[in-house]
């Protein structure tokens, strides 16, 4: 069946290296998981939206996993806001697994406040309390050498550790989460392009590969007795993400009506 | 009953501001909790020990909580090693609560590698999975404004965030954990003394006060149904701490025999 490409893949406003990275990540995801995903069920006014004064634009697509897939859903989005100081571009990939597996979720978020500054999160989100489950920590975080990738990026010039202001978000992240602020200074546009094309691109692709191999495409099943807690914990993460991130920021960028539409579509896909 | 002061209180090798801070913290602890603690049960060769070549010295004291106290034990220690490059001084306060309460444990560790450099950890260690228990996060971490104290110290000149190389230790720490490296440079002895006497001392004392008020002296009881998991989680923290921290480092500093004695005394007090 021919499908028109989703508007989320167009990235009409992104700086070129940011766009190239996103296109590459999304096509890897699609090549590996696409055939196991249901068609998008997101309405047209969520696939593409803007605020009344046409200064903010966005696109959000969500595809659920098919029957027998460990994928709960894949969320892909971009937001673009014209600001007096320039433009804000936010791109997000969120790969959520269902309770048939206990393997980590995927989070990638790139918040580019200007051509020379970027805050980013790349992480496999733990599904279990790592203090109580050192085996889980060993399997998904130690043996996968995610720390090496984190250090590789954090040791680059212009890259600083970044902390979310939300203590809940900090708790959700793993101990190898990449959470950094890249600020190349007023004349640093070339540096930023270079970092995005080289180190950042390489690290993001490697983390995605680890998630695809070890998590989204692994046949390891969760214990039936543990599924209740997995679902409870995942629902808390979904609810809190909407509350802290979306419900707080979208109305500011798109006005209350458009924001309510987007949040509603996400809550429906999240089943919360 | 008169008790001789514990050798752990002497700190014969510590730089003066480090000693003053420790004496102040330990006397606050003792004034508030002392009457609820049993006498030390640690043998003389653990209260005071050194390696064969008399280049490393240490003192470790552990007092268990009395009947009806929510304190499991208070561990206080100092280690001193003469090194070719100077001296290493490590001081530790560990306040562990029992399963009658779910309130956080206290961890304070100051690792002074030279008169101008210090790595330190100050934290209330969560007893529960914070992702699954946002109420717990709110009660002990948000409402206590620990983040303000963390930022206060981290924003000081010469202070950098520090990450334990152990992913397990990172998982044990709370999202407001103070984990920093203070490095004042070759000629920075005065700066280090100033930071220890002013900002560090103030922050450490405030965190201790919060722990005493909200955790060690609170009458809030844990749910009987939750105690089994609390004990299981606490035992994992105890076991992993011994494995990662002590069993890995003490033999290097004190030789295998002295190290085994110290680790044995800790395991006995930890009941692991």
UniProtKB/TrEMBL annotation, chains A, B:
One of its GO terms (molecular function) is red chlorophyll catabolite reductase activity. Transmembrane segments: none annotated. It comes from the Eukaryota. GO terms for cellular component: chloroplast. InterPro entries: RCC_reductase. It holds the Pfam family RCC_reductase. GO terms for biological process: chlorophyll catabolic process. This is Red chlorophyll catabolite reductase. It comes from Dioscorea zingiberensis. The lineage of its organism: Eukaryota, Viridiplantae, Streptophyta, Embryophyta, Tracheophyta.
